[in-house]
Design a protein that fits this description.
- The chain is of the alpha/beta class.
- Among the domains are: 132 residues, 3-Layer(aba) Sandwich (Oxidized Rhodanese, domain 1), CATH 3.40.250; 143 residues, PH-domain like (Roll).
- The protein contains nine helices and 14 strands.
- The strands form two sheets. Strands 6-12-13-14-8-9-10-11-7 form a nine-stranded mixed sheet.
- The two termini are 50 Å apart.
- 24% of the residues are buried.
């Protein structure tokens, strides 16, 4: 018996050792909300983006966009302070119940927030099992979607076929997507047929030689130990200035207290460095979270402060190169591979890092932690995104 309800049937497959806090089911949440004399009440915190919250939410829930913890720490701090003050003033005895998207990848920021609150000693925390998606499905199954606040089936992404006009729009959307797919496939087949006709119409006496452009089958990929490599030459001409594809725009740069940022629970490693841009060396810091690599450039005119110049997904690390003559210089290339195996580099950053070996190892471990395990017997069949350990060889 947990919280006065038998949940064995609802969570018989949950491994408690893998849970950051205890989950509650939709049925349990609705029972507690209906029961006015219940000893336990939940203060619901909706962790989705604000625009999704406005399209439908649980009445009385508090909106806290958890992604702001990474994107805008200052705004997130204001939101958390407002959350704590409201709860202490209005609902001091209620238990926190965090409502996410219902998707493991989308809910990673919510997990980070819960972990942070637990580290601060906050008690009575739980999460809604399956998030808002599961709650929406449950209410839909019992025809109680009207219990949601500001819910409109026409604009609700989870409704699908609910509502006549929305159902019709969904069918039209599906037909539109299928039409585009057929047209795209037809164009591709037309091009292939043209190439085939042209190749067969050549004179018999001409022998064709293999061309670098003729690629059949799967492109050769680097072995599983080559994301990190030692470059003896490291031509400076091939290294452009730090790209701005994944770099924060000038107006989005925020000045923050460096010590405060580094002390956040989600920052797992940090390294002092100098960012190399052309012939300039700018004092900076690299901070690693579970999913991102942050580049913080020191404020020369204000010691102890830094500006966030880039926030890059670790899943897009394509290559990390170490110079043979100067091992402290690391070059990070970010990008992905296309469907035919062509590498596309979107961003390059170069640093002089006194603890370069430790930094490379930390990046490797972080990538390994987020890399999905391959299916048995299908190690190399998964399409590459440019991330992973393929280019590491420590």
């Amino acid at each position: 018996m947990i919280f006065g309800a038998n949940l064995l049937d609802e969570f018989n497959e949950v491994s408690l050792s893998k849970l950051i806090c205890f989950p509650i089911s939709n049925q349990e949440l609705m029972r507690r909300e209906r029961g006015g004399d219940s000893a336990i009440r939940y203060f619901m915190v909706d962790c989705r983006k604000t625009d999704l919250y406005r399209r439908g939410n649980v009445p009385g829930s508090f909106s806290l966009d958890c992604q702001l913890m990474v994107d805008a720490p200052d705004q997130f701090a204001i939101g958390v302070n407002s959350l704590k003050k409201y709860k202490s003033d209005q609902r001091p005895d209620d238990h926190y119940c965090f409502i996410g998207y219902g998707d493991e990848l989308d809910d990673q920021h919510m997990v980070m927030v819960v972990a942070r609150l637990l580290a601060e000693g906050t008690q009575h925390l739980c999460v809604l099992d399956g998030g808002f998606k599961a709650l929406h499905g449950y209410l839909s199954s019992i025809n109680q979607l009207g219990k949601l606040h500001s819910h409109d089936p026409i604009i609700c992404e989870l409704c699908g076929g609910h509502g006549g006009e929305h159902s019709h729009a969904g069918v039209l959307s599906l037909v539109s997507r299928l039409s585009k797919a057929v047209v795209s496939k037809g164009t591709t087949m037309k091009g292939k047929m043209t190439e085939m006709v042209n190749s067969r119409s050549m004179p018999e006496g001409i022998t064709m030689h293999v061309s670098a452009k003729d690629r059949h089958g799967k492109k050769y990929r680097k072995s599983s130990q080559q994301v990190f490599s030692i470059d003896g030459e490291s031509s400076e001409d091939e290294l452009p200035h730090s790209s701005s594809v994944y770099t924060l725009k000038g107006e989005e740069k925020e000045k923050l207290l460096l010590a405060s940022f580094m002390s956040q629970p989600e920052v797992i490693e940090s390294f002092e460095c100098r960012e190399l841009i052309g012939d300039k060396q700018l004092p900076a810091h690299i901070a690693l979270t579970r999913t991102h690599m942050h580049i913080l450039r020191d404020c020369v005119d204000q010691p102890g402060y830094a500006t966030t110049t880039a926030r890059l997904l670790l899943s897009t690390v394509y290559n990390v190169t170490c110079r043979k003559k100067i091992p402290e210089v690391l070059t990070f290339k970010f990008g992905y591979e296309t469907e035919i195996g062509e590498p596309t580099i979107t961003s390059i950053h170069r640093f002089y890092i006194p603890k370069a070996g430790e930094c490379a190892k930390a990046v490797k471990h972080a990538i390994y932690a987020i890399r999905p395990l391959p299916d048995e017997g299908k190690e190399d069949e998964r399409p590459s995104t440019g991330a992973g350990l393929e280019n590491f060889s420590l």
